[in-house]
Amino acid sequence: MTTYKYISVLFLAVSILLVGPSCTDVLDEPLENEFIAEDTDYSQTENMVLLLYGAYAELYSLQWETFPLISVRGDDVNAAGDQFPLIETDEFRYDRNFWMYNSTWLNLYSDLLYWHGAMEEIEKYREAGANEANARQYIAEIRVMRAFELMYLAKLWGSVLIPNASEPSHLFNVELSDYQTVMQHISMEMDAAIPDLPSVRPNQRADVRGGVTRYTALAVKARANMELGNYAAVVEATDEIIGSGLFVLEPDYYQLFKIPGKLNDENLLELQYSDFGQASGTRTRYLWDFFGPSSWTPAVSGAGGGWGFFEPTEKYVKFMLDRNEQERLTTSVLFTPDGIAAIQSDAAYQNLPDWVSNVSPDGDVFNNHPRYNFLSGKHYLPSTQLTPGRFTYGENKNFTCIRYAEVLLLHAEALVNGASSQVLSATEAVNQVRARAGLNNLPSVDLDAVLDEKFAEFAMEWGIRYFDLIRYDRTDELNYAGRTFSEGDRYLPYPLEQQDILPQIREAANEE
Predict the structure, then answer these.
(1) Per CATH, is 45-197+476-492 categorized as 1.25.40.390?
(2) Judging by DSSP bridges, how do beta strands 267-271 and 399-403 pair with one another?
(3) d(CA 224, CA 246)
């Protein structure tokens, strides 16, 4: 049996400041950042799969601060609450001392180094006689996990280090790769991984249900090539996913983000958590408290709330009201009475539809709180869906990362940029997404229509809106509610701690 040990190293040291009394317990947890195997008998080849299980556990242990930092700068989301540096980040005033920058950098690099260690260990099992096909598949799955997180490192900081080994010290000798190079690297990595991955939906896998498949890798490849402007490669990847006939849009958009949406036929990648259907005992969970209400009256008495640090914008709410978007708006946004009043204070929105309410379809009531006017419905689990005996906010909910709806709209986006497809037209792709939302078909689509559809569909999801606006230099949209975006705001500054440790980062920061 393999024994795993994690050690800290000097240049990945963590400096995390406490951010408030509701969060201190989770911030005290140590960072795990290097993979080491000891006393391993590689002839026991049946143990090789444990490395794959460990790789998924690392993926699912995404620290809570990483997602908000990725997502918060778009015009779909406000940083709510009393976290001043996060609010400043949302408004494009960056502080390289902000603990969340360094923590997210460490979170992502820790995962990358861990996965390199896992791949290195799998290679040793293969050399000792383990099943060749299994070894190749496990490495391919881990490559996709690695690419998924490496992409966000580049989206946050632009030029980053691409690890090629598990030893943290090797990063001292790795040159910075610019954004385009990182995306090219990811695309090539997916080309290498795809042949070794199963051609099934993630929820069809019998060995690791919900795990990475060929289509997950194709979706990551499509994302990378969209950033490169290689629209033909985007369509090549999305054509294969669409043409497989394996994926469908979940008819119930509201439930897609809740317990019935776990391991859905729409999902190409999701972080999985469970309370194992038991009222107490072992559980795995994401820290949904970050998104949860600080004041509510849950339908199930005693259900816990959260911190209220992540808020949909009034701009997004009004955009959806203008489109008469009931299903996606009531799914994406939880209203408080003050939020409704704020919308109605605009004369154009005095008469709101009856379905705009501070009561969710499941009977949870969202009360006023000084931190926010709205909450994210995509990160909400109704209290009625909690396992009886469980009361922690969001318990047992999965975290969706890539959906088939995104594949369809990436496909449409590439087509309106000049690519061609024999599988599905841009208009057909957009109208499939619209039909699920209860909207009429469009007779034709252009880039404006595609980006509007993505705004409506993916609000609060993984910074998609922000990165869309950046990609097309439509940053005027980010100048709302007193914000002013400039070209220098595209990427975050390198964390000060990393400048002090890594000479490549220090040199790059001095050139900014």
Answers:
(1) yes
(2) antiparallel
(3) 22
